[in-house]
Structures are given as C-alpha cells and as structure tokens.
Amino acid sequence: MSSLVTCKDFLQELNAYLDDEATPELRRELQAHLDECPNCWVVCDTTKKTIQVYKGADPAPLPAGVHQRLLAALERKAASRQAGK
Amino acid sequence: MIQSVDQAGFDESALVAAAQQGGVEAFTSLVNRYERRIFRLARHITQSTEDAEDVLQETFLKAYEHLEDFQGNSRFYTWLVRIAVNQALMKLRKRKGDATVSLDEPIDTGEETVTREVAVWDPNPELIYSREEMREILQNAIDSLPPAFRAVFALRDIEGLSTEETAAMLNLTIPAVKSRLLRARLRLREKLTRVFKRKGDEFFGYM
Predict the structure, then answer these.
(1) How near does any CA of chain A get to the CA of B29, in Å?
(2) Of A33, B28, B37, B75, which cross-links A5 as Cys (Cβ 3.0–4.6 Å)?
(3) How many other β-carbons are positioned within 10 Å of the β-carbon of residue B44?
(4) pLDDT at B109 (0 to 100)
C-alpha cells in the first residue's frame, strides 16, 4: 500500500526528519514515502549533504590586517581603561 | 557553570576566568580562538567584508568591556555570538534603502519551486574542489539568500545553536525560525546541486 504522504507533505516535514524531531509515527510515514519516491530521496539526501558541507567547512583565515587591527583596537581599549582607573 | 572543557580537553572556563581577572593575554587567547568564526558569522549576516570587520571589532571590544557580566550560564562562544548577531543586525538596519532588512517580514507560503534541480551529487565534492574553492562556492550560495534565511541558517546549521536560542537572538518566533531554516536549506541545496551534481545525471529530473 502506498503511503499517504505526498511530496509536498514530505518537504514540509523535511526538517523534522533530518533533525530527528519527528514523532515515531510521522517518521514511519516519511520513511515510507522516501522508500517509494526517488525524487524526495534525492532532495533529502542532498539537503543532508548541504548541511554537512557547511558544518564541516573550517572558517577561512581572516583577510590581511584584520587580526592586527582588532588587537590594536583592543590595546587602545585596555589602555584607556587603565588610564581611567 | 556549564561544563566547558571541549573534546580537545581545552578548559575554556579557566581562560575566561583569567580574562575576567584582567588578563589581557587570556583575552587575546579567546580572540585567537574565536575571531575566524565570529568574522565568518558576521560576513554571512552582513554580506560585506568591511561590515564584518567592524562587527568583529565591536564584538570583541564589547565582550572585553562587559566581561564581568558573563556569568557562565551559557558557553562563552554563545555569549560572543549573541553580541556579534546584535552588532551585525544593527549594521544591516543602518543600511539605508535596503528594503530587505526586516528579518520578520511575512513570508510567502505559496508553492515554492525550490526543488527544481533534483540530481544526485558527486560522492565527495570535497575531493574535487580545493578548500578555497569550496569556501567560495558555499559563500556564494549563502550570499544569494535573503537576510533572514542567511542569519537563521548560519546560527542553526553552521554555529549549531538550538531553534530556541536562534529565535531569541534574532527576535523571531520559533515557527518563523523553523520555516526560514527549511527554506534556507532547500535553497542552498538547490544552489549547491547545480555545482555538485554528478555529471550525466541531468535527465534525473524535475518534480
């Protein structure tokens, strides 16, 4: 028997599925849809990978000078604090 | 006090405590540890390298100034993120003539064709593109999103904050965070699929 979940329903609940927030019953229904709908399976799989590539990416090094300017600004702040004490 | 020893065994609370005692070196260690992530977050929200630098400075200056207010009820990094998000949102709002500034604008709940491109990806895009190329691809995709989507995605999926924390920081309701996150994820998936799809799979679809 085919599941009652449509592709549109599945997409609406995609986050609940991916973030493991679906109730067991909903999860079963979503899984049943996934098992018979290759398109939704691909959307689900590639959305999961989208999240993974962002999570896994290291932040880039700071552009030249940004770190030095930040430290200089902090030094000025620290100095003005000292002076104010 | 929340346990703040991370997987590498790094004891952050000791560093924060030292900084709170006035230890400039300890505070500099915290800067070195988090500046890249704060800069990336600021860049994601503001879409501007210049603004991101301002936000980075303002965030650490404010953190330095208000260090004694940090009680250890959250992770230090989450506290920094909260300051950075405030600063970044202020930057966005200051931009005159930017009609897309409101994070809370009503969203169209109609049919959204965000799943036009349905194709299997290459198994390991990380092996095909260099680290720099990957960063550029990911940055370009995020830049194409509206501000509210960028901010929600960055906080939830990149910084790993909870829905509740994200809602509080962005002053959005929980359902608003959830719907923006879904749209952000689907739009990014769509963008990345155009780059990462396995060659020869173009026939695979339309839904």
Answers:
(1) 11
(2) A33
(3) 24
(4) 46
Q: Give the number of domains in chain A.
A: 1
Is residue A25 domain-resident? yes
Distance CA B151, CA B146 (A): 9
Report the C-alpha gap between A27 and B157 in whole angstroms: 21
CA dist A40 and B115 (Å) reads 9
What chain B holds in terms of domains, given with CATH numbers, is 12-94 (1.10.1740.10), 125-196 (1.10.10.10)
Does the distance separating the beta carbons of B24 and A77 come in below 8 Å? no
What is the pLDDT confidence band of residue B207, given thresholds at 50, 70 and 90?
very low
What are the pLDDT digits (tens) for A8-52?
999 999 999 999 999 999 999 999 999 999 999 999 999 999 999
Nearest CA in chain A to B153: A51
A75 within some domain:
no
Reported as a single tens digit per residue, the pLDDT across A69-83 is: 999 999 999 888 777
To the nearest whole Å, the CA of B40 is away from the closest chain A CA by 6
Gyration radius of chain B's alpha carbons: 19
C-alpha B31, offset from chain centre: 18
Inside any domain, residue A66: no
Interface of A with B in 9-38 (CB under 8 A): 11-12, 14-15, 18
Report residue B15 as tokens. Answer: 């560093």
pLDDT digits (tens, 9 = 90+) for B113-127: 456 778 899 888 888
Q: The domain containing residue A22 runs over which residues?
A: 7-60
ipTM: 0.91
